[in-house]
Amino acid sequence: MQAEDASAHNVLPRSRKAKAVLAVLALAAPSPVLRSKLASLLWSQRAREQARASLRQSVLELQRALGQGAGAFLRTSRSHLALRIEDGLWVDVWMVAGATAYQPAGLELFQPNLLEDLHGLDPAFDAWLEEQRQRVTQQAASLGEALLNVAQDTKGRISAAERLLAIDRINEPAWQALIRAYLDAGHSTAARLALERCSITLSAVGLAPSRQTEALIRGTPPGMGTDRPGNLSNSVRLRVLQPRVLDRNGAENPLPGLAEEITTAVSRFRWISCSVAACHATADDYLLDTALQTAGRSVRIIVRLLDPKAGNEVIWASRFDRETDDTLDLQGQLAAEMAAQIDPELLLREGERRISNGSGSPSAFDLTLRAIPAIYRLEPTRFRAAGDMLASAAAMDPSIAAAHAWWAYWHLFLVGQAWATDPIGATRQAGQLAEKAVTLDPGDARALALVGHVRSFLHKRAEEACALHEKALSLNPNLPIAWCFSGLAHCYLGRHQIAVEHIERAQRLSPHDPHSFFFDMALMMPYYLQGEFEKALHLGRRAIELNPGFTSTYKGYLATLGQLGQYREAKRVMARLLELETGFNVQNALERSPMTTRSDLRLYAEGLRRAGLPED
Questions:
Q1: How far apart are CA 131 and CA 115, in angstroms?
Q2: Tens-digit pLDDT profile for residues 312-348
Q3: Which residue in 191, 310, 324, 579 is deepest, having the highest Cβ count within 10 Å?
Q4: C-alpha distances in Å from residue 466, one per residue of 411, 435, 470, 518, 596
């Protein structure tokens, strides 16, 4: 929820029950609501007088939150309460429920799970909330259809169709309107991608596009249009050299298909154009050089990533010692690990290269790559500059999926680090950008993983996130961040052992990843929630050493210190956390946490309290 006064000051009460009172009144506004109804919705399991007393406390909190305008906005009587939404008060849920053809702005705020942060307050309230969700969704869908029907130009029809699909994902007429609009605009590739999105969305609920929908793009020859994902101008070239055998006795190559396996694995990363090269390629290509040494059934694989523009400087190297019992399986394992480790190294190298060659007019892809090093390092000034670069890239070329995906990732850290001046707006934009990235390239595993993490971490929809992560991993099982995000989503749902397995898979794929601190922070939480505090302690310490400015680590680490009774260390860590996130307290932690099980939330809060974190 979000509520603001005329000066855009937050007037949302802190407690969930007081927020729920505001929500019920806003959805009924300007009609009055019986006090007895509110009490029965929110305190259905308490005695009547106790419920009414609790309601009075929540109303007092709501009045304090509304401040000087409380008398004008909130009308009270012995039997009723009523909210007056005037120019001096703005409540997002009222905007959504009250959207009309003349004032459709509220549709932009629509979320399928209305007021999901208030779910679980009371069984009676949950039943009421489900009714309101159905009512508001039907109302929003009807309005969305009306706006689509009156849209005039192709841009307006595309916008209206996307807006309706955000409300009703299986509305096939909206998919048809979107496909037609893209075809009318001459974007045949975008039309085919829209059909692919339609097919994926409908298949999730056991449906398939109708013949009429599929017939819309018959006769559009493949390759038409300029908005093709994976365009070579928006990629970096990597050439994989055939492995060299270093043995003097002229031994044959024990891994004859390794170069091809590596090429296949790396090509799953949409931004890398990868192929096998028989000899050194052009100076614009990065090179992957592999050398093999054998001793009986043992093989040592030495890998070097070279930058020909810098005189074949080695920018990454690794060594793998394995047994050759199963050649095919070994080649697949090695290729997966190499691809996972090459991706971030190339991202950082190419980003820094394009920063140093900053003269001239950069393309959208240039700006995207320039922003990436700052996202990995999380230094505040450069991080904000990276956001400006990604905004420029998305504006310069709205069809580039990578710019939208990385900008969504940037917003995740903006919110998680408490650097956002408008956390709710930043959360909303992260979701919109991630959805846009997937719209532009449904086959981009990184974009799908980002959408999933936005859904679970920011929007608290972990079940949906798990399905998206599964899709991302089917597209690219070598993407460590997808394994990590998947593990976090399972952790939020209380599936801690699955979370450990997935996050440890990310660490095995890329043990020296630039975001290793993120992996350690993520793994700390399921261990903590399983009561394995010593393991959580070790991971928290290591994550802080790797990146002392990442605020999320301090929270789980502080709770761990509280559980272990290490109060002196807890005091030091809490002081650092409050430097990074002024005013952080137990109530903030619970309100913002994406965990869904009460036992996990209770254990988390218990550790923070024992460590001495203020309650509110």
A1: 12
A2: 889 889 999 998 878 888 888 899 999 999 988 888 8
A3: 191
A4: 20, 16, 6, 19, 14
Reported as a single tens digit per residue, the pLDDT across 493-549 is: 999 999 999 999 999 999 988 889 999 999 999 999 999 999 999 999 999 999 898
Name every residue whose Cβ is closer than 8 Å to that of residue 328 and which is 6 or more positions away in sequence.
257
Q: Do domains 3-139 and 151-215 have the same CATH topology?
A: no
Mean pLDDT of the chain: 85
The percent of residues above 90 in pLDDT, for the chain, comes to 30
For residue 33, what are its two tokens?
């609501």
Please name the residue ranges forming H helices in 276-379: 327-356, 364-377
Residue given tokens 């310069």 in the structure block = 396
76: left (phi over 0), alpha (psi -120 to 50) or beta: beta
Helices (H), 170-222: 172-184, 188-203, 211-215
223: left (phi over 0), alpha (psi -120 to 50) or beta: left
CA distances from 541 to 212, 464, 520, 553, 570 (A): 58, 32, 9, 9, 12
Q: For the structural domain made of 3-139, what CATH number should be given?
A: 1.10.10.10
Task: Indicate the burial class of 593 (C-beta count within 10 angstroms; 0-12, 13-18, 19 or more).
Answer: middle
**Cα separation of 303 and 56, whole Å?**
69
CATH 3.30.43 fits 151-215, yes or no: no
467: how many CB neighbours lie within 10 A of its CB? 14
Q: Which two tokens stand for residue 251?
A: 């031994």
230 φψ region: left (φ > 0), alpha (ψ -120 to 50), beta (else): left
